[in-house]
Write a structure and sequence with these properties.
167 residues; 4 helices; 7-stranded mixed sheet; single chain
C-alpha cells in the first residue's frame, strides 16, 4: 500500500454492520449509485458471515440519524478476499474516508488469512480506479458486460475492471 493514512478523529469509528443499520446504508446507496445494492443484498451478506463494517461519525446528523458515512462488505475465501462493496456518502467524499475504508478492509482481509484482495470497478468510474491504484491495486482482468448500464435498456451493460491488491 502506497497511500499514507492520517489517524481518524476521535469522533469517527468503525463498527460491524448490523441489520438495524440497513435503512441508513440503503439511503446512502440510493444517493450514490444508479444500481444500488438492495437491503436483501446487505442482509444476506451479514447472514452468511461476510465482514460488513460501517464507518460512522458520531456527531454527523447530515446523512443519517446513525451518522454512517461509509461502509464495506468483504468476503474471504481460501487466501483471497473479495471486496464486494465499498461506499462513502456523497457529502463525505473527497475527505479520505474511502482510503480509510480500504485500509480497514485490507486489515480485515489480512487478519482473515487472505494474501490478496480483489474487486471490480466500472470501466467508467475513473475516480474510483485512481483511488484503488494509489492504494496499490493493479488491474488483472476485465469482466465483460458485468454491470447494468441503463434503466431504459437492460441489454446495455458495462465492463468491470478486476483489480488486485497483494496483502
Amino acid at each position: 500500500m502506497s497511500a499514507q493514512l492520517q489517524s481518524l478523529p476521535d469522533s469517527v469509528r468503525f463498527q460491524s454492520m448490523q441489520k438495524d443499520d440497513l435503512a441508513d446504508v440503503i439511503a446512502i446507496e440510493k444517493t450514490i449509485y444508479q444500481f444500488p445494492w438492495t437491503e436483501r443484498n446487505f442482509s444476506d451478506s451479514i447472514d452468511v458471515g461476510y465482514i460488513a463494517e460501517t464507518l460512522f461519525l458520531q456527531s454527523n446528523k447530515e446523512q443519517s440519524a446513525s451518522g454512517i458515512i461509509g461502509y464495506f462488505v468483504l468476503m474471504i475465501a481460501v487466501e483471497e478476499a473479495h471486496l464486494l462493496n465499498l461506499s462513502v456518502a456523497s457529502p463525505q467524499q473527497n475527505q479520505g474516508y474511502g482510503r480509510r475504508l480500504l485500509w480497514q478492509a485490507s486489515e480485515c482481509a489480512r487478519l482473515g488469512g487472505a494474501e490478496s484482495m480483489i474487486l471490480e470497478v466500472r470501466r467508467s468510474n475513473l475516480r474510483a480506479q485512481e483511488i484503488y491504484r494509489r492504494y496499490g491495486f493493479e488491474q488483472i482482468g476485465v469482466r465483460k458486460a458485468y454491470y447494468p448500464n441503463s434503466d431504459t435498456d437492460r441489454n446495455t451493460r458495462e465492463d468491470a475492471l478486476v483489480m488486485r491488491l497483494k496483502l
